[in-house]
Amino acid sequence: MKRKESPSNSLKAYEGQPLSGSLESFDHITKELFDGTEDLSIRRFHVFGQHKAAMYSFSHMVQQSSVNEDIIKPLMHIPHHLQGRSFAPDELPDVILYEALYHGDVAREQKVDNVIKAILAGSTVILIEGVGEAIVISTRSIEKRGIEQPATEQVIRGPREGFIETLNTNLALIRYRLQSTDLRIKMREIGRRTKSKVAICYMDGIADPEILKELDRRMEPIDIDGVLDSGYLEQFIEDNKWSPFPQVQYTERPDKIVANLMEGRIAILVDGSPLALVVPTVFNQFYQTVEDYTERFMLMSAIRMARLVALMFSLVFPSLYVAIISFNPELIPTEFAVAVAGGRAGVPFPAVVEVLIMEVSMEVLREATIRLPQQVGGALSIVGVLVVGQAAVSAGFASPITVVIIALTTIGSFATPAYNAALALRLLRFPLIIMAGMFGLYGIMIGLIIIANHLLALKSFGVPYLSPLVPGNFQGMKDLLIRGPLGSLTKRPVFLNPQDSVKFRRKENDDAAGKQQDNPSPS
Amino acid sequence: MENTDSRQITLIQASAILISTIIGVGVLPLPLFAVRAADSAAPLVTIFAIGVAFLGIALLTWLGMRFPNQSIFQYGNDIIGKWLGTIGSIVVIVFFAVLTSLTAREFGEVVVTSVLKSTPVEVTVIVMLTLAAISARRSITTFAYFHTFYFPLLLVPCVLIAILSLGNAEVINLQPILLTSPNNAFMGTFTIAALFQGSFIMTVVIPAMRKPKKAMKASLFGILVSGGLYLIIVVASVSVFGAEEIKKLLWPTLELAKGASLPANVLERLDAAFLAVWVTAVFTTLLSSYFLTSVALKQVLHLKEHQVFTFILLPIVFFMAMLPQNVTHLYVIIEDIGRVGLYITMAYPGLLLLIAMLRKKRGERNA
Questions:
Q1: Residue B262 domain boundaries
Q2: Any chain A CB within 8 A of the CB of B307?
Q3: Where are the transmembrane segments (chain A) (predicted)?
Q4: Residues near A49 by Cβ (< 8 Å), separated by ≥ 6?
Q5: Chain B residues in contact with A468 (beta carbon < 8 A)
Q6: What is the pLDDT of residues A22-79, one digit of tens each?
Q7: To bridge B136 with a disulfide, which of A185, A319, B28, B290 should be the other Cys (CB 3.0-4.6 Å)?
Q8: Count of structural domains within chain B
């Protein structure tokens, strides 16, 4: 017997091989492939009391009651309308499919490898002696958690549903919000071993076909053994893997996906991952939230600005502090400068070292709070806050102003709705602090120019990352810093090159209706 | 998705490139140049200079619109022959390499003198040059994005400082408005006009414009905004300090920023903040001349990529930047080179245009 190289390879040996029709030979194949696997159940029985048959499935993946009631029962116990008739083996699949089985999702399969794949995917397969065809019945039933409110993207006003791990449920969540014939869902299989199902969703007639082609081109060469989460996929399809900034957005909110689909973006869902990917992504998506659109525009514009301020804070605040304290204390008002100097009097380190130490300990604290179980986390954060805050100051380790700065920075980075974008800014803060320590304000500007240049040159699927700011687009700017009234956002984002650009249209017969009301009809 | 990089630049982007290229470190000594030329008539001289500068850029733009698919380094060969054209291009390249190094050195001196007093000037110069070199590796579309992004950042501090210093302004300092000694004014006009030389970048921008026909509009717009800003700065500093006082200041604009302070005492002094924002202005100017130099080299040598040159140029430009012995020497060179440069950036395109018209040469129209 030849040496098995890997499961995917041993299955490859049967690629395209037709079923022989002999139960014994198929048994042999399963024995070879699933050697020693004990959850594979093989149930032998006689179809209509005459023909030898066997049923294969992974018993834990199928819904037993349905298998018993809808498959075994009608096959073993001849239904009334078939009583007294006898069938030749090659008639059997037709009869079973059309007259006996009580199941909606049934297919016929002639190839060995496809039959094995179906068993692996959780289907039930029936083989009958002397018939060169298998009947594949989708009986997969995996335990899944209920649909809950998304943990990472909570809203006060807006839908409460979040994706779960099962792909079919997620697709259903999208489909019921977007009951349109234009919603296309293309399936793919990625992962040599995991054979993960990947769904690509887009709106036909809105999404740019060029971007779709580009996505296909990037998905094609992915040859990884397993895709366990959409995050794996993101790293294969992104434009620049050396960029700290995420070029693909992820979300666990079906409503967000639907909104993005309708703007002309493409969503990618992976079976087993509650996070869907959205491409192309531009930077402004990372500080927008669902509420921006569900709540009234003036309030949310103000809040969006606050979020932007927080974003900038989290990036430059500590470095500005270092630069001003170490190089240009004359910039700040004298009274304040004196207070700062007084606070720093007992601190032995230069400002840059002090800020770096505090920032690093803050990162450690934050990481620890995320990883710890919830029961311990609370206690830790209290200790941490005390240590980093009060005690560090009394110990002469840091000045009170530094603590304020670090606190503002940390809170600022939490205000960014997208975790991955906040991470990028968190990371970039450190080189900026070092630049500030070396060259003061000049150093910060150099650092910021490098970051801005990188952002300006970055693209996500051919779409400039800072659109619609640069290259500028007036329509797009209405939804950039502020969120314009919904009525004024009449066009889909131009940078996505939507095939149908009109989003909102005032009904023309509104005017006519108004006029009719003005002129009372003669009665 | 590969061909998206050609012919993408819009009218606004072209104007933004011009504005942010022109506004640079030259703004800092600008009032000094103007006052030296004509005392209190400095604003008038500035207006003349804007006129001269516009003439120069108009010639270049006209040429560019005549050959909408080529830059001066390509149509130069068509108009006056391969040898003369190549020589012309090389002169332009050398000039812009020198201009890049002088700009870097000038700003390096500013930073070392006013903010980072214990940092050697070599460090600040090499940092700026490296930044420009890295950024100049990008395509022309991204280059346009850079400029569009930064140019609002240039307008705000200039206008802000002018407004804030209104409180200290004296109208009497601006009188007499008219010229007293036309001779000095003539030289001064050209010195100031030389500050607009970065606008030569237009020659590589036009072949990448979506509608080259709008190039003239972009040039006009670019000169108007940057010229207007120059004028505001000159008027503001002359009215605050008076002509005699400015002659004693090396960088009057920076002094203007020192004198201004924000209401409510948020920031007590603005000069360091102003200088910090000004880093972007200098960066865009450097980027343009660096980009122009490397693209020109590419076109003269008929290569496909200009990226090769960015790092080859770096040591050369840095070496040239270190040649002037001190700030005074530097400014003597800057003024001389600037005026010589006018022959290159104005007379050369003018000559080309004349010959092109006489020989009835035109570029392809199918843009």
A1: 30-358
A2: no
A3: 305-324, 336-357, 378-397, 403-425, 432-456
A4: A76, A78
A5: none
A6: 888 888 888 888 887 888 888 898 888 888 899 999 988 888 888 888 888 888 888 8
A7: B290
A8: 1
